[in-house]
Amino acid sequence: MKTVRLYLILSITLFSVLQIAAQEMIDKRNVDVRMKNLTFYVNKNEKGLIYNSVKRLFADINFNRLNKSKLINTENYSVNIFLMNEIKKLIKDSQIHLTNAYLVVSNKYILKFIVYENIADKSPKLKAIITLIAENVRGKVKFSSPIKYRSKSWKNKQIGNINYFYKNSFNAKLAKKFNRKNSEIAKKLGVSIKKLTFYKCSNYEEVQRLLGIDFDAKSVGIVQSSEAFENTIITGVNSEDFSHDVFHMYIKTKFPDDKDRNFIAEEGYANSIANAYYAKNNGEIISRRELVFYLKEYVEKNLNADLLELFQKNPRVYFQLSNQVSKEVFNQLSVKSTISSLICDEVEKTKGFEGLIRLLRSGKGENAFFKSVDNLIGINKTNFNRRVKKIILNFN
Predict the structure, then answer these.
(1) Residue 287: partners with Cβ closer than 8 Å, 6 or more residues away
(2) What is the pTM of this model?
């Protein structure tokens, strides 16, 4: 009997060792964390602790253990977990070089990582540069985004439920408008009003740097974009107004299961209830009203235009704005979303907000959108040109 028990113990031990070995092999294959020949400005007693914690962190990121990880700082947790999930996208099949570490305050260190493609090449391609804060809390290292450290010199202003952080100019009038919109959208959807932390950035590069992504090869060329999660907004459109994406945030709160969300309708109604999201060169956010009037002008000049084709192919048509916006923004202005916004208005006017919710929850894709719109207000592919043209021309 003792022999059997001993055999079982040895078998379990051997299995555990093999599991750990296999895990380490997978770690090495997918995420290779290196720290060689570095000038490392860290207390000798903490150097090993931090480096071992770094390896464990990247293992947690790589193996989808973030929700259970004890290495993520719980202060400002939603920002930290968002950053870690972004890092997961950046480090797949990569070499990660910890290139610098230095004390910034008390027991907190800045860690700088360079991410390369994991290829057998003397000159591997640079994928990303990442900065993290590592804090030694009673012998245990906790990791976080550098967002608070990097915004510590920014100005701060509270407008209603919105806590703004900004570097230079601040438009109080626009901030008050957004605060009203935030409340109106929440009340309309029947959910609690969010108390939001709002970081106003000039562009997407600044957004990423604030989070801790100093460089991302896949984001090169993106200027106007933002990040929003939980109760945090980091906008890269240089505006105090984020009502377009706040609508998406509240829809996510109202209907956390994404499977029934129709994003054609949702994007349309976000344009209608808020704005078109993107900013002109002068910083002014483009309004849905402005886009509809330009579309109306287009239809009046092209009475035989195929509006169904315009909706489905979504070409660039807002040439009136070409001198007022960047090329990036011009290419993002969607005639499909403008038409969808007008259809959403028609649904709400005819069937009320309950009907609009049915459209917003009609399922994914264009077929689901058309099926729902046909059931609600009788617009379908056969009569689309006639019905939609009438809506556009009657807009005022």
Answers:
(1) 275, 276
(2) 0.85
